[in-house]
Fold each of these.
Amino acid sequence: MSFLINMALVKNAKDRRVAIVAGSVNPVGGTEIYVGAAIQVLVDAGYQVSVYLNDMRIPSHLAGLGGVRFVDAGAWFLSRRQFMSDWRNIRRRRDLIADIIKNSSVAIFHGLHSRHLFNALAGHVKIVIAFHLVSHFCPAGTRYLPASNTLCDRRPGPTCLATDFREGCLKHVFNGKLPPLMIPEVLMFKRNIRMMSSPARALLFNSDAMRELVSDEPLINGKSYVINPPLIHAGDSIPGIYRRRNMVFVGRLDASKGCSDAIACLAHLPEQVTLDIVGDGREKKRLVDLSASLGVEQRIVWHGWIPTKNVLALLSSSGCLLVPSRCFEAWGQVGPQALSAGCPVVAYDVGGVKDWSLPGMTTYIEAGNVKKMADAAAKFLMEKRPLNESVVQEARTRFGMSRFGREYIKMVSSCIET
């Protein structure tokens, strides 16, 4: 894989070492795609990369890369109880890995890790903290309020416990019961973010919406960067000339992802319109019952989880994609995937979904307004217009790996030279 990277930004790159600390690069979720792409562009630009992982399931296209070393860093990804039971060994291991990371010019942490680790590295290496998940700024991890089925607009902190009492948002994550060990974490959540972010030279966000979550917080004195994630397999599918009269939902079958709104949307549209649902989850039985009660069960195809190439093939011939999330979407990878396949998108205006807005191909609706979502989808579904190939090319260029590579290398170079 090649990237159009301005090599003037990486003079003497072979003498520079970059450490990446992350939970996993198993190519499933958004963070994993981001980390995998970062490793690829750094190696292509001539950097020596050390990757410290909790999960050693490494994709084959990364495992064979020259100039990259993978190290197990599981010491930082343990529960408080595990940590207290074997804290001496964990501390020795943490200090050992910290000594190795000190040999790097820049250490990029994907998410917050041990405050003691950051303090051990301060003054030895320039630290960048990358935020991709809403869980970095919300104890429940979604900013979703189950009882009211709405998006939470409160700041994290002690008030989260009162909110959980009314909404059950934390209990929803822990299957109905909030573990006692989580209560101190919730109370100190905001303070911990400030404390652990303070040694950072820069913060890296995957969308403008994620950066806005901390816009009024004095987290660091350094810079902040927004680099949108790249598309994977963007050019693998060839969009059809005309769209089918079907809608597609892709995602986890959970109340926060709003699949029930996609099914309700179908009930507002003519009988010839169908819905393809890609994904699985604990809400499937309830959703099947909902479709039966609305009389649309014969118009729905349940695919379960399917490979990415199959998702792209489905999107490339579909009328539109629905993104009816009730939770805060940090980015929403499926939106750019649909646009790169020539499939229009109708989405609720939550989180970072507007970061991938494309005129004529995206429509945003206030969360919860199913009727407006159906009306917006109908405009795309009922038009028999030829595909605008220039729009597809714009999406693939805007969200492509070349753009990501240029922006990421520029960020790393700036941190090294500062």
Amino acid sequence: MAYQSAYVFARLGSGERRLAGIITCEPPLAEFVYSKEWLAEPEAYPLDPVNLPLVNRTFRTQNPKGTFGVFTDAGPDDWGTRIMLMHHNSSPQNEVERLLRTSGGGVGLLEFSLSRSYPRNPTELPGIELLDELAAVAQKVQEHEPLTPEQLALIEPGSSMGGARPKVVVTDGASQWLVKFSREQDLLDIPALEHLTMALLREAGIRVPAIAIRTLGAGRSAYLIERFDRMAGQPLHFVSANSLFNTSRLRRVRDSRKNPYSYVNLATILRKHSSEPVTDCRELFTRMVCNILLGNTDDHARNHAMVCSVNDRQWRLAPVYDVLPTLGGVRGHQAMGVGTLGADATPENARTLCKLFYLSDTEAQSEIDRLRGLIATLPERAVKAGMAAGEIHMLEGVLNVNA
């Protein structure tokens, strides 16, 4: 019989685990109740400021996964699920079982257990010096080759981070790094392109974690980004914009002011819950315009988030992650609503509702012009990074700087 309930643990600023509540899933329905201990804790924070405010009541939701999005955020996505299934003889029968199997391995600070006393300790992460060996194991997984128990034990820790690309989490002793590998079907050097793009976003004034690029064997590379949710002395609770939106189906609404799945709705949430609403909304506008100009149409709501500093319980827009030009996809529309013309991928559409991001029309146009010039330098940077002429040509065809 499948487990339907689990205890949810969160961390305080001291790093101490505390029982935050109980999640019960009977798909498509789910319930969550905060524990009395968490409600009485002076340093407690809501696990989701929009859908799970810190009050004593039973919260209910209904969606295909049968749970609240903030808990799904802490579980594995495509790649992590693939690794999980290689390790177990049976598939999890529901979301609770999936979260129990990968507790502590996903993004953020949440952990799950069948015991109300404590969750199991996550498996120790591999060291960064094992990166070449990890890349070889990840390649075997992509080629559907069986792994030895030792290889599976090596790659499983940290594999529960979201996303479909092959990835691992490693440690250098001081920090944790998410490492993304290339794939056989990649049209160009995706790790190198993501590294270049993120460096460009930092120049644009967007908050980018520490990043690095590593050359591996056989002409491949790996992209590294420091985990901003696990930085020493500054643990961050994570909830994706997708979870904040809490909509299980996309609504076809042209005007983004009426579309819950939009940058505008995320700006509305930031205005209400961020400790720095003006700064965060302005940065969100910059990110939105950069995605348009980059031709990044994979800017769905799981690629945006808010984080809560558990030290002072302040919410902010999360540092940027998972941004690069989308190759081979459908162009012309962003994944989320942009302006009065819906998801149309034009800077002019972004400017139509700029006031909701604390920008005047003049300020918005000035920012668009600045970013257009910056994004246009990406092909030149790719040449200097050693990307091939064919790759550069493909990249130039994706960029939307002339929109």
